[in-house]
Amino acid sequence: MKKKSSVGIWVTAIFAIAIALYGFVLYGVLDGRETPFVQQKEEMELSGSWMTWLTVHAMSAAFALLIGWLQFVKRLRLTHLGLHRAIGMLYTLAIAVGGVTGLYLSFYASGGISGMLGFGLLAIVWLISTGIGIAAIIVRRDPAAHGKWMLRSYALAFAGVTLRAYLPLSMVLFGQEVFDIYYAVIAWICWIPNLFVAEWLIRRKKRPTTRNTLSA
Question: Which of 72, 58, 65, 76 is nearest to 15 (CA)?
C-alpha cells in the first residue's frame, strides 16, 4: 500500500511540475498575449487589467501546483515540520491570490453561463476548502481534518493539469468550431472528478486493514 501511495505522489508531482513550469514560461518568460486563448479574449475588447489578472492568476496557481504535492510526502512532514509549515504558508498565500483572481476571471470565461459558473464555483470551493483546512490545524488543532481538507484543496489545484489535458483532446476530437460547447463542459469536469478522487483517497484511508479486521 505504501509503495502504491509513493508512486501516486510522484506521478502527481511529475504532471504538476510540468504544467506549473509551462505556466511560468508562458506567462512569466514568453508573451502570453500571443496565445490563441488571449487573442480570442482581446477580440472581446476586455479592459487592459484583464491580462494583468490572468497573469497573476496563472503565476500564483502554477506556484500552488508546483509546491502543493510536497505536503503529502510523509517523510517531509515527520522530519522537517518547519519546512512543511513554510510550504503550507506559501501554498495558502498562492491559493488566496489564485482563487480571488480566478473568481474575477470566471466572469469572462468562455462557454457562456456554464463556463462562468463552472470556473467561478471552482474558485470559491478552492478558497473555502483551503480556508477550512488551515482553520482545522490552527484553530482546532486537528491534523487529521487538516490533511483531508488540504487534500481536497490540492485536488482542486490539480484542475490546472486536468484542464490542460481535456483541452487539446477536445480540440482534436471536436475541432475549434464548437469550442464554446465543450469548454462549457470542461469548466466542470476539470475539477469535480478530482474531488471524487480526493474523497475516495480519504475514505480508503479509513478502511480497516485485513490484519486489523482479523485481529478484532
Answer: 65
CA nearest 205: which of 127, 167, 157, 148?
148
What is the rounded (10 degree) CA torsion for 128, 56, 27, 188? 30
CA-based nearest residue to 127, from 83, 91, 169: 91
| Residues in CB range of 154: below 8 A, 6 or more apart | 68, 69, 71, 72, 198
Number of neighbours of residue 153 by Cβ within 10 angstroms: 28
Cα–Cα distance, 23 to 32 (Å, whole number) = 9
Contacts of 202 by beta carbon, 8 Å cutoff, 6+ apart: 148, 151
Instruction: Convert 179-202 to b/e letters by CB count within 10 Å (16 or more is b).
Output: beebbbebbbebbbebbeebeebe
- Asked if 130 and 114 count as a contact pair (C-beta separation under 8 A), the reply is no
Instruction: Record the pTM.
Output: 0.88
Distance CA 191, CA 203 (A): 19
pLDDT one-digit tens code per residue, 70-87? 999 988 888 999 999 999
Going by pLDDT thresholds of 50, 70 and 90, the confidence category of residue 8 is: confident
The per-residue b/e assignment along 33-51, b for 16 or more CB within 10 angstroms, e otherwise, is eeeeebeebeeeeeeeebb
Instruction: Please report where in the chains the cell 518568460 appears, as a residue.
Output: 29
